[in-house]
Amino acid sequence: MGNLMGSWRYKEPSTVEECDSTWETDSESDELQPGGEEEDTEQLDHGSPKVPHHTPALKDNKEETITMKTFGDMMESSTRMKRSFYAAKDLYKYRHSYPNYKEPRRPNEYRNLRFYLNKIPLVPDGIYIEEILTKWRGDYEKLEHNHTYIQWLFPLREQGLNFYAHELTQDEIKEFQSTREAKRRFLLAYTIMLDFFGIKLLDKNGNVARATNWQDRFQHLNESQHNYLRITRILKSLGELGFESFKLPLVHLLLEEALVEGTLPNMRHSALEYFIYTLRQHSQRRALLRFAQRHYQPPENFIWGPPKKKRIPAFGSTGMKSGKNEVVEKSVGKARSPREGRNNLEREADDIDDRKSGEWKTVKGSKVLQEGRGRVDLEECIETIPL
């Protein structure tokens, strides 16, 4: 038969729909049009003009119909935006392990692993991992303004801004994942960055919550948006080095703060365009997107949900909708306040579990986890995580 795989050629996706398979395996999407999200949906646009709540009364119905159609077309063309193809393609390649990617030709020295074993310093600063882990925690000025360490702490199979940092290779990833000391230090580096963001790691399952310094750090994080690129990199690196399960709790917390609590409003677009799509499991992405859809404002601008179903009128009835579709429309149409969403978080998570078995079960209020408990020593916490 010959080598069939040898003749296979990877085809680059050319649209957002080709990059996003989030809803393809969803049982609620059996009747959906193929291709993913709708093309003509609106995206959040802070600079877009607002549609007035009232329009002047016109003299006759014909004139009113023409004017409203013209006005609607104008507003639609001025506010309509689409999802970022760049973001969709970037995360598609990551989730599919960089198809058609060629490993670096230079000799593989496992430089990322050696750095985490404290055998070589990061370049160009000449700093060893142990110095970062013991002296950089809480030094927010250094963590904010130094831009060379992040590529070493959270390596990927792609080149970052620090060209001295080496891309991961598949062989190095396997070696890293089997090296306990490297993984222990990696988790400590993760906790340092979480603390920088105002978040703390709670347990061996990757659950997170607000840290004691969350107010100041969230205010900083909301204003310094270049850190959103760092969060995307951290999420990717977690998946590469054996901590895929840690992504979901972190992304959910960030979504909750951005959409429900309103502490990180500037982050919501990055969370929806990038953070969610670092998760490799369809069911996890769907659960997060359903959560976001219930709290997004204005709801009509939410473009990351499932595509609309084909409307096939039934005999003797027009506008008949299935029960599931009514649930979706009600959840979108009834926008809840942040306080109301917070109080109903646990019930909404249970609704998701009832509809979709196997999807992630939301923890009741990540900020109330371990309330009243003393501060857990980080080293002790890390030691409880199976490496």
| Rg measurement, Å | 24 Å
Largest sheet properties = 2 strands, antiparallel
SSE run: HHHHHHHHHEEHHHHHHHHH
Name the poorly predicted regions.
1-7, 27-79, 315-350, 352-375
Q: Using the alpha-carbon principal axes, give the shape.
A: globular
Count of beta strands: 2
Helical fraction equals 40-55%
Total helix count?
A: 18
Distance between the termini: 43 Å
Strands of the biggest beta sheet: in what spatial order? 1-2
Strand content: under 5%
Give average pLDDT, whole number. 75
Structural class: mainly alpha
Biased composition (Acidic residues): 15-42
GO molecular function: opioid growth factor receptor activity
Protein name: Opioid growth factor receptor like 1
Domain Opioid growth factor receptor (OGFr) conserved: 107-310
TL;DR?
The chain is mainly α.
Question: What does this protein structure show overall?
Answer:
The chain has 387 residues and is an all-alpha fold. The protein has helices at residues 16-19, 61-79, 85-95, 111-116, 129-135, 140-145, 150-153, 170-177, 180-197, 214-223, 227-240, 247-261, 268-275, 282-295, 323-333, 338-343, 345-355, 378-383, and strands at residues 199-201, 208-210. The chain has a two-stranded antiparallel sheet with strand order 1-2. The longest helix is centred in the first third of the chain and has 19 residues, at 61-79. The two termini are 43 Å apart. The model is unreliable at 1-7, 27-79, 315-350 and 352-375 (pLDDT under 50).
